[in-house]
Amino acid sequence: MPAKYYFCAMIRKLFLLSVILCFYTVFSSAQAFVSTASLFKRPLVTNNSGSLNIIQNRALDSLISRYIMVNNELRIENDHYGMPGYRIQIFNSSTRNARDESNKTMAEFLSKFPDIKAYALYAQPGWFKIRVGDFRTKAEAIKLFLAISKDYPDSYLVPDFINFPDLVKK
Fold it and tell me: How far is 159 from 137, CA to CA, in rounded Å?
C-alpha cells in the first residue's frame, strides 16, 4: 500500500508541475517584451555616429513594455486612437429639433472660435451633444472654459476620450 500511495502522490505532483509550466509558457509568450535599447535604435548608422549604451534595471524594461501594451489598447470606435482627457460640452438636447439646433450651435461656435475643434455626438435615445477641445488636464480646459462660458453659459467640463495632442506646436 505505501508504494502505491507514493506513486499516486508523485503523479499528482508531476501533473501539477506540468499544468503550472503550461500556464507559465502561455502567459509569458502572450506579452511582447520591449527593451529600452530597442526603442532608441537608429535605422541609419554612419561612420561619424556615436553609440548609445543604456544601463538600467530590467524592471524598467518590464514597466515600459506594460505601458506600451496598455496604450496600444486605448481606442475609441473605428480604430481611432486617443487618451483620457477633458472636453467642454456646450450643447445637450433631446428635443424634436435638437439635430438642427446642434448643427446651428456648432456652426456658431466654429465661427467664433475657428482654431478649436468641435465634435458633434449622438447618444441614445436621442441626445445630440456638442463638445469642444482636446485637453489633457482639467487646468488646460478651465482656461478655455472661462472664455467660452461667456458666450455659452450652460457649458460645463466633461471627462472624455480625446485625440492625442500634436507634439509640434505651431
Answer: 10
- Report which of residues 80 and 53 the model is more confident about: 53
How much is the pLDDT for 13? 79
What's this model's pTM, rounded to 2 decimal places? 0.57
Q: Helix (H, G, I), strand (E, B), or coil: what is residue 123?
A: strand
Distance CA 75, CA 163 (A): 10
| Residues whose CB is less than 8 angstroms from the CB of residue 137 and which lie 6 or more positions away in sequence, other chains included | 85, 86
Amino acid at 168: V
- The residue written with cell numbers 482627457 in the block is 85
The correct CATH number of 83-162 out of 3.30.43.10, 3.30.70.1070, 3.40.50.2300, 3.40.50.1370 is 3.30.70.1070
Q: Counting beta carbons within 10 angstroms of the beta carbon of residue 134, is it exposed (0 to 12), middle (13 to 18) or buried (19 or more)? A: buried
What would the pLDDT profile of 41-60 be if each residue is shown by its tens digit? 666 666 776 776 777 787 88
